[in-house]
Design brief:
six-stranded mixed β-sheet; five-stranded mixed β-sheet; Deoxyribonuclease I, Chain A; GPI-anchor_lipid_remodeler; Endo/exonu/phosph_ase_sf
Length: 282
Protein backbone atom coordinates (compact mmCIF):
# COMPACT_ATOMS: atom_id res chain seq x y z
CA UNK A 1 0.00 0.00 0.00
CA UNK A 2 1.45 3.35 -1.07
CA UNK A 3 1.57 5.83 1.80
CA UNK A 4 1.01 9.50 1.19
CA UNK A 5 3.56 11.82 2.83
CA UNK A 6 2.53 14.13 5.62
CA UNK A 7 1.24 17.32 4.04
CA UNK A 8 2.20 20.80 5.19
CA UNK A 9 -0.45 23.41 5.97
CA UNK A 10 -1.53 25.72 3.18
CA UNK A 11 1.10 28.34 2.47
CA UNK A 12 0.89 31.65 0.71
CA UNK A 13 2.07 31.89 -2.91
CA UNK A 14 5.40 33.52 -2.01
CA UNK A 15 6.28 30.71 0.38
CA UNK A 16 5.21 27.94 -2.00
CA UNK A 17 6.92 29.07 -5.20
CA UNK A 18 9.91 27.31 -6.70
CA UNK A 19 12.94 28.10 -4.47
CA UNK A 20 15.05 28.61 -7.58
CA UNK A 21 12.76 31.31 -8.94
CA UNK A 22 13.63 34.76 -7.65
CA UNK A 23 10.93 36.59 -9.58
CA UNK A 24 8.16 38.41 -7.78
CA UNK A 25 4.81 36.73 -7.32
CA UNK A 26 2.44 38.01 -9.97
CA UNK A 27 -0.75 39.77 -8.91
CA UNK A 28 -3.04 37.53 -10.95
CA UNK A 29 -6.28 37.34 -8.97
CA UNK A 30 -9.51 36.57 -10.78
CA UNK A 31 -10.68 40.15 -10.23
CA UNK A 32 -7.65 41.48 -12.09
CA UNK A 33 -8.20 38.99 -14.91
CA UNK A 34 -11.85 39.88 -15.42
CA UNK A 35 -12.13 43.55 -14.53
CA UNK A 36 -15.45 45.31 -13.92
CA UNK A 37 -18.78 43.97 -15.17
CA UNK A 38 -19.45 45.43 -18.63
CA UNK A 39 -23.19 46.08 -18.25
CA UNK A 40 -26.01 45.98 -15.74
CA UNK A 41 -28.08 42.82 -15.59
CA UNK A 42 -25.05 40.52 -15.71
CA UNK A 43 -23.50 38.31 -13.03
CA UNK A 44 -19.69 37.78 -13.27
CA UNK A 45 -18.08 34.36 -12.80
CA UNK A 46 -14.60 32.86 -13.11
CA UNK A 47 -14.01 29.26 -14.18
CA UNK A 48 -10.72 27.35 -14.29
CA UNK A 49 -9.51 24.16 -15.97
CA UNK A 50 -6.40 22.72 -14.32
CA UNK A 51 -4.55 19.47 -14.99
CA UNK A 52 -2.68 19.09 -11.69
CA UNK A 53 -0.57 16.05 -12.71
CA UNK A 54 -1.40 14.23 -9.43
CA UNK A 55 0.06 17.30 -7.59
CA UNK A 56 3.54 16.31 -8.77
CA UNK A 57 5.37 19.44 -9.90
CA UNK A 58 8.01 20.02 -12.53
CA UNK A 59 10.58 19.26 -9.83
CA UNK A 60 8.97 15.75 -9.48
CA UNK A 61 7.88 16.48 -5.90
CA UNK A 62 4.41 15.61 -4.61
CA UNK A 63 3.25 18.97 -3.24
CA UNK A 64 -0.54 19.40 -3.08
CA UNK A 65 0.02 22.49 -0.92
CA UNK A 66 1.39 24.22 -4.03
CA UNK A 67 -1.74 23.32 -6.00
CA UNK A 68 -3.85 24.69 -3.13
CA UNK A 69 -1.85 27.91 -3.17
CA UNK A 70 -2.34 28.27 -6.95
CA UNK A 71 -6.09 27.86 -6.42
CA UNK A 72 -5.88 30.58 -3.80
CA UNK A 73 -4.19 32.85 -6.34
CA UNK A 74 -6.96 32.17 -8.86
CA UNK A 75 -9.90 32.57 -6.43
CA UNK A 76 -12.23 31.02 -9.03
CA UNK A 77 -15.90 30.12 -8.65
CA UNK A 78 -15.61 26.74 -10.41
CA UNK A 79 -12.47 24.63 -10.95
CA UNK A 80 -12.30 21.55 -13.16
CA UNK A 81 -9.40 19.32 -12.12
CA UNK A 82 -7.79 16.58 -14.17
CA UNK A 83 -5.33 13.90 -13.01
CA UNK A 84 -6.47 14.20 -9.42
CA UNK A 85 -6.40 11.43 -6.80
CA UNK A 86 -8.85 10.73 -3.99
CA UNK A 87 -8.98 8.14 -1.25
CA UNK A 88 -10.33 7.37 2.20
CA UNK A 89 -7.67 9.46 3.90
CA UNK A 90 -7.63 13.25 4.19
CA UNK A 91 -4.03 13.03 2.99
CA UNK A 92 -5.21 12.37 -0.56
CA UNK A 93 -5.07 15.27 -2.97
CA UNK A 94 -8.76 15.96 -3.63
CA UNK A 95 -9.67 15.83 0.04
CA UNK A 96 -6.73 18.11 0.81
CA UNK A 97 -7.78 20.68 -1.80
CA UNK A 98 -11.43 20.54 -0.76
CA UNK A 99 -10.47 21.11 2.86
CA UNK A 100 -8.38 24.16 2.04
CA UNK A 101 -10.78 25.76 -0.44
CA UNK A 102 -14.02 24.98 1.38
CA UNK A 103 -15.70 24.33 -1.97
CA UNK A 104 -18.26 21.68 -2.92
CA UNK A 105 -16.71 18.59 -4.53
CA UNK A 106 -17.98 16.56 -7.47
CA UNK A 107 -15.80 13.56 -8.31
CA UNK A 108 -15.63 11.80 -11.65
CA UNK A 109 -12.99 9.13 -11.29
CA UNK A 110 -12.24 6.81 -14.18
CA UNK A 111 -9.76 4.29 -12.76
CA UNK A 112 -7.64 3.30 -9.78
CA UNK A 113 -4.05 4.58 -9.54
CA UNK A 114 -2.03 2.94 -6.77
CA UNK A 115 -4.36 2.89 -3.77
CA UNK A 116 -6.39 5.91 -4.86
CA UNK A 117 -9.24 6.72 -7.22
CA UNK A 118 -7.98 8.79 -10.14
CA UNK A 119 -9.50 11.02 -12.82
CA UNK A 120 -11.57 14.20 -12.93
CA UNK A 121 -13.17 16.37 -10.28
CA UNK A 122 -14.99 19.67 -9.88
CA UNK A 123 -14.59 22.18 -7.07
CA UNK A 124 -17.46 24.65 -7.02
CA UNK A 125 -18.64 27.46 -4.77
CA UNK A 126 -22.20 26.63 -5.83
CA UNK A 127 -24.13 23.62 -4.59
CA UNK A 128 -24.56 20.89 -7.24
CA UNK A 129 -28.21 20.39 -8.15
CA UNK A 130 -27.70 17.38 -10.41
CA UNK A 131 -24.70 15.28 -11.45
CA UNK A 132 -24.30 12.79 -14.27
CA UNK A 133 -21.20 10.80 -15.24
CA UNK A 134 -20.53 10.42 -18.97
CA UNK A 135 -18.49 7.37 -19.97
CA UNK A 136 -16.11 8.31 -22.80
CA UNK A 137 -14.01 5.16 -22.70
CA UNK A 138 -12.92 3.78 -26.08
CA UNK A 139 -12.16 0.07 -26.24
CA UNK A 140 -8.45 -0.65 -25.94
CA UNK A 141 -7.67 2.80 -24.49
CA UNK A 142 -7.33 4.23 -21.00
CA UNK A 143 -10.71 4.78 -19.30
CA UNK A 144 -11.99 8.34 -19.81
CA UNK A 145 -15.06 10.22 -18.74
CA UNK A 146 -16.74 13.56 -18.18
CA UNK A 147 -18.64 15.12 -15.29
CA UNK A 148 -21.95 16.79 -16.14
CA UNK A 149 -22.90 18.95 -13.16
CA UNK A 150 -25.73 21.45 -12.91
CA UNK A 151 -24.79 24.01 -10.27
CA UNK A 152 -26.95 26.51 -8.42
CA UNK A 153 -25.20 29.70 -9.46
CA UNK A 154 -28.45 31.51 -8.77
CA UNK A 155 -26.87 31.97 -5.33
CA UNK A 156 -24.42 34.35 -7.03
CA UNK A 157 -27.17 36.29 -8.77
CA UNK A 158 -27.48 34.26 -11.99
CA UNK A 159 -30.89 34.04 -13.60
CA UNK A 160 -30.70 30.25 -14.04
CA UNK A 161 -28.58 27.27 -13.04
CA UNK A 162 -25.42 26.53 -15.02
CA UNK A 163 -24.35 23.26 -16.66
CA UNK A 164 -20.64 22.47 -16.33
CA UNK A 165 -19.15 19.57 -18.30
CA UNK A 166 -15.58 18.76 -17.26
CA UNK A 167 -13.47 16.19 -19.09
CA UNK A 168 -10.02 14.85 -19.98
CA UNK A 169 -9.88 13.38 -23.47
CA UNK A 170 -7.68 10.57 -24.75
CA UNK A 171 -4.22 10.55 -26.32
CA UNK A 172 -5.08 9.01 -29.71
CA UNK A 173 -6.62 11.10 -32.52
CA UNK A 174 -9.31 8.54 -33.31
CA UNK A 175 -10.15 8.25 -29.62
CA UNK A 176 -10.63 12.03 -29.32
CA UNK A 177 -12.82 12.17 -32.41
CA UNK A 178 -15.14 9.56 -30.94
CA UNK A 179 -15.20 11.31 -27.55
CA UNK A 180 -15.95 14.75 -29.00
CA UNK A 181 -18.82 13.32 -31.05
CA UNK A 182 -20.23 11.76 -27.87
CA UNK A 183 -19.96 15.03 -25.96
CA UNK A 184 -21.55 17.14 -28.69
CA UNK A 185 -24.43 14.68 -29.10
CA UNK A 186 -24.89 14.76 -25.33
CA UNK A 187 -24.95 18.55 -25.14
CA UNK A 188 -27.29 18.86 -28.12
CA UNK A 189 -29.91 16.62 -26.50
CA UNK A 190 -29.56 17.90 -22.91
CA UNK A 191 -32.02 20.25 -21.24
CA UNK A 192 -31.18 23.77 -22.48
CA UNK A 193 -29.09 25.71 -19.96
CA UNK A 194 -26.08 28.01 -20.17
CA UNK A 195 -23.31 25.42 -20.63
CA UNK A 196 -19.56 25.43 -20.07
CA UNK A 197 -17.44 22.62 -21.52
CA UNK A 198 -13.87 22.55 -20.26
CA UNK A 199 -10.90 20.33 -19.58
CA UNK A 200 -7.69 18.91 -20.98
CA UNK A 201 -8.68 17.92 -24.51
CA UNK A 202 -5.18 16.65 -25.42
CA UNK A 203 -5.59 18.04 -28.93
CA UNK A 204 -2.22 18.92 -30.46
CA UNK A 205 -3.55 19.44 -33.98
CA UNK A 206 -5.16 22.87 -34.34
CA UNK A 207 -6.58 21.85 -37.72
CA UNK A 208 -7.88 18.49 -36.44
CA UNK A 209 -11.52 17.51 -36.58
CA UNK A 210 -12.17 17.49 -32.78
CA UNK A 211 -11.33 21.19 -32.41
CA UNK A 212 -13.14 22.11 -35.63
CA UNK A 213 -16.27 20.31 -34.42
CA UNK A 214 -16.11 21.95 -30.99
CA UNK A 215 -15.56 25.40 -32.47
CA UNK A 216 -18.45 24.88 -34.89
CA UNK A 217 -20.83 24.02 -32.05
CA UNK A 218 -19.68 26.47 -29.37
CA UNK A 219 -17.97 29.07 -31.62
CA UNK A 220 -14.23 29.57 -31.44
CA UNK A 221 -12.54 30.63 -28.19
CA UNK A 222 -9.00 31.99 -27.72
CA UNK A 223 -6.06 29.67 -28.34
CA UNK A 224 -3.99 29.90 -25.13
CA UNK A 225 -0.90 27.77 -24.50
CA UNK A 226 -0.80 25.93 -21.16
CA UNK A 227 1.66 23.05 -21.69
CA UNK A 228 4.39 22.53 -20.66
CA UNK A 229 4.09 24.90 -17.74
CA UNK A 230 7.73 26.07 -17.74
CA UNK A 231 7.57 27.19 -21.38
CA UNK A 232 4.00 26.74 -22.65
CA UNK A 233 3.65 25.96 -26.36
CA UNK A 234 0.51 23.79 -26.69
CA UNK A 235 -3.10 24.77 -25.95
CA UNK A 236 -4.16 21.38 -24.58
CA UNK A 237 -6.54 22.89 -22.01
CA UNK A 238 -9.70 24.52 -23.35
CA UNK A 239 -12.88 26.27 -22.20
CA UNK A 240 -16.01 26.76 -24.33
CA UNK A 241 -19.39 28.26 -23.44
CA UNK A 242 -22.84 28.29 -24.96
CA UNK A 243 -24.17 30.90 -25.63
CA UNK A 244 -20.78 32.27 -26.75
CA UNK A 245 -21.74 35.85 -25.83
CA UNK A 246 -21.33 34.97 -22.13
CA UNK A 247 -17.55 34.58 -22.53
CA UNK A 248 -15.49 37.69 -21.72
CA UNK A 249 -11.89 36.43 -21.77
CA UNK A 250 -9.61 33.39 -21.54
CA UNK A 251 -6.04 33.46 -20.19
CA UNK A 252 -3.44 31.09 -18.82
CA UNK A 253 -2.32 31.73 -15.24
CA UNK A 254 1.47 32.14 -15.38
CA UNK A 255 2.54 32.97 -11.84
CA UNK A 256 5.93 31.63 -10.69
CA UNK A 257 4.15 29.14 -8.46
CA UNK A 258 1.91 27.84 -11.27
CA UNK A 259 4.96 27.19 -13.43
CA UNK A 260 6.33 24.65 -10.93
CA UNK A 261 3.21 23.21 -9.24
CA UNK A 262 2.15 21.07 -12.25
CA UNK A 263 3.25 20.37 -15.81
CA UNK A 264 0.15 22.29 -17.03
CA UNK A 265 -0.72 25.91 -16.31
CA UNK A 266 -4.27 26.65 -15.15
CA UNK A 267 -6.59 28.10 -17.79
CA UNK A 268 -8.95 30.77 -16.46
CA UNK A 269 -12.05 32.13 -18.20
CA UNK A 270 -14.22 35.07 -17.23
CA UNK A 271 -17.95 34.93 -17.90
CA UNK A 272 -20.90 37.26 -17.55
CA UNK A 273 -24.16 35.37 -17.19
CA UNK A 274 -27.66 36.89 -17.20
CA UNK A 275 -28.50 38.09 -13.70
CA UNK A 276 -31.74 37.44 -11.88
CA UNK A 277 -34.12 40.37 -11.73
CA UNK A 278 -34.10 42.25 -8.46
CA UNK A 279 -37.29 41.99 -6.36
CA UNK A 280 -39.66 44.76 -7.36
CA UNK A 281 -37.89 45.48 -10.62
CA UNK A 282 -40.12 46.41 -13.55
Amino acid sequence: MRMQPDLPPLVNPAQARDPGDTGAVADTSAARHCGPVRAAGLAPMTVVSYNIHRAVGTDRRYRPDRIAAVLEELDADIVALQEVESGSSNDHTLEYLAGHTGMHVVSGFTRVHGNADYGNALLTRFAPEAVNQIDLTVKGCEPRGAIDATVACTAAGCASPLRVIATHLGLRPGERRHQVQQLLNYVATAHPLPTILLGDVNEWFLWGRPLRWLHAYFEQTPHTATFPSRLPVFALDRIWVSPRAHLVSVASHRSPLARVASDHLPLLACFELPAAALPGAA
